[in-house]
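User: Here's a structure from my thesis project, written as C-alpha cells. My advisor, Dr. K., wants to see whether a designed sequence matches the one we expressed. Can you design one independently, without my sequence as a hint?
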C-alpha cells in the first residue's frame, strides 16, 4: 500500500514538474527548487483527493475507440463554439442545456466523463449509480452547448440524450 501511494505521488510529481518546467522561459536553480516543491505539494494533494474520493478507472470497454474519436469531437465542438460566438456577437444568446445520457455497459464513468468534459461542447456534472455498477449502464448528467452529437458521445453512450 505504501509503495503504491509513493508510486502515485511520484508519478504526479514527475508530470506536474515537467509541465511546469515546460512553461518556464529560462530555468534557474531557484525556479527548479520552486517547481520541485510546488509539484510535490500538488502531487500529495492529488493523492489525498484520489484516496478520499475512492475514484477508480472503471471499465475499459471502448476506451480505444473513444480516444481515437476525441480529436474529432474537439474539432467539431470548436467549430460549433466559433459559430455560437459569432451568433452571440450578433445578439443571439446561446442556450446550453443539462441532459442525461446512459454510458455503454463496461464503460468506466471516470475516464469517460473526463474525456467528454475535456471537449469544448460538454461538461459532465453528475454520475448516477454506484462504483460497483461499472459493468452495468450508468447515467451521466452533462451540460451540452448544442444538441449536436459527436462521434465521441456515440462511442461512450448507448442512445440519445434525454
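Assistant: Designed independently from the structure alone:
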Amino acid at each position: 500500500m505504501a509503495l503504491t501511494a509513493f508510486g502515485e505521488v511520484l508519478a504526479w510529481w514527475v508530470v506536474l514538474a515537467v509541465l511546469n518546467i515546460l512553461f518556464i522561459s529560462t530555468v534557474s536553480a531557484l525556479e527548479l527548487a520552486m517547481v520541485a516543491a510546488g509539484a510535490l505539494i500538488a502531487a500529495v494533494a492529488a493523492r489525498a483527493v484520489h484516496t478520499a474520493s475512492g475514484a477508480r478507472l472503471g471499465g475499459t470497454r471502448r476506451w480505444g475507440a473513444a480516444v481515437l474519436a476525441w480529436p474529432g469531437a474537439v474539432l467539431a465542438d470548436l467549430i460549433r463554439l466559433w459559430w455560437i460566438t459569432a451568433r452571440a456577437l450578433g445578439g443571439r444568446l446561446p442556450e446550453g442545456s443539462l441532459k442525461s445520457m446512459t454510458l455503454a455497459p463496461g464503460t468506466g464513468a471516470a475516464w469517460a466523463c473526463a474525456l467528454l468534459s475535456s471537449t469544448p461542447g460538454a461538461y459532465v456534472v453528475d454520475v448516477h449509480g454506484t462504483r460497483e455498477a461499472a459493468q452495468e449502464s450508468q447515467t451521466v448528467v452533462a451540460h451540452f452547448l448544442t444538441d449536436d452529437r459527436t462521434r465521441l458521445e456515440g462511442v461512450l453512450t448507448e442512445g440519445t440524450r434525454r
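When you compare it with your expressed construct, this may help: The helical segments are 2-22, 29-53, 63-89, 109-117, 151-156.
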